Model the fold of this input.
Amino acid sequence: MLSRKEKEFFQPDPEKIDILEKERQGLDDPDKIMQDYNNDLRMASELKEKLKTILSEDRGAAFYPKEAEKLFMQRQKVMCRIAGRFHPLSAKGSAVLSAVRSDRKEYEKRTGKLIAAINKADSACFSTVLDEDVREAVDAGKYRAIGILQLHGIRKAGVGALAYYYDKGAEDESILRIVWLYIHPDHRRRGCADVLLSEIINVAIDKKVSAITLDFHPGDQFESIGMMLDNWRFTFTPAIETDFVCRIGDIDTHGIADRFSDKVVFLSELEEEKAQSLIKRFLAVTEYSGYIASDTLPKSYIDLKLSCFTGDELNPAGLLLAHKRRSGDISTEFLYCMPEAEDDAELLLYSFVLKASRTSPQDDLLCISVESDEDAYVLDEYFPVQQGNYILGAILQEPEVRADV
Done:
């Protein structure tokens, strides 16, 4: 395991990154572009006619033949490829994506929902394709999610899911961040991921989002995920996970015990009503006022025993909010100090880590979102054994001005 400082000198194998570029060779050949484009148009038209013939018979959703579904997914995949040939966020690419959505909705009129929003009421049927921590965040309203339902017969089980949230960029631009994309192994290579991505890009277009991001670990799924995102015109940047991740048993509590300060107060020391009031009052004077105020985020999501603040109860100077995930791992959900109390961030971190290490199993993970270089240096100094991973950051942005195909 490497510390964050050591990772700064880590350089990924450039050949892995070059794989994506090699797959794009010949893309700028106008003749080949037009030939492939016309072939896709012809294939999409042929699939539509075949599908129309099969669906002409009036049958219930439970009795539609697998052939119809196979043809429909093939057509969706081809239309998604056409959108990618332009650029999904270009004018023509967006028009094709709109047609993909309309095509799906027409199909759903005959067969029932294929793509559905995932909420707390029905997240259980997506349990096989949602990580338990992601599912908890969806149930709490922290993340939004869409899923693809069972592909044949009576659709009751989810076979794929995509979770995301909206964020603000450095210039206050709106960003849609995908945090989870997973297809059940029994339903892969059928176009399910493309269908989910096409819908989420449509959502981004509707919301006038500037960019879509997705970070993933290059490994066994590098080829499938990387190539698929490349087809959608995502670009890639090698990076290191920004979150500090450490096994609680690896924390040297003796090194941080001396840094503990009486200035730090844990929210569990207050009455619950006063603790919740302090949280809302503090967030109201920052840009994060909607975080806890949201009606969808239950109060129980924040662990008051691990959350702490500095300053006066009526006038807090700094606040750290923590959450104990369903998996048992602990994460920071919020850390902010007023400008006049920036040094309190260290005190909050030390106190939080010390409390977590004394009250949690040794094999649980501690996950701290690192928002600044100062936080990273503090964590590196006292917690050198980390589990951060090398990742590829994928981003889809509006295309440069150019002629469409």
In short: The CA atoms of residues 69 and 152 lie 7 Å apart. The chain has a mean pLDDT of 79. Residues 4-233 form a domain with the Aminopeptidase fold (CATH 3.40.630.30).
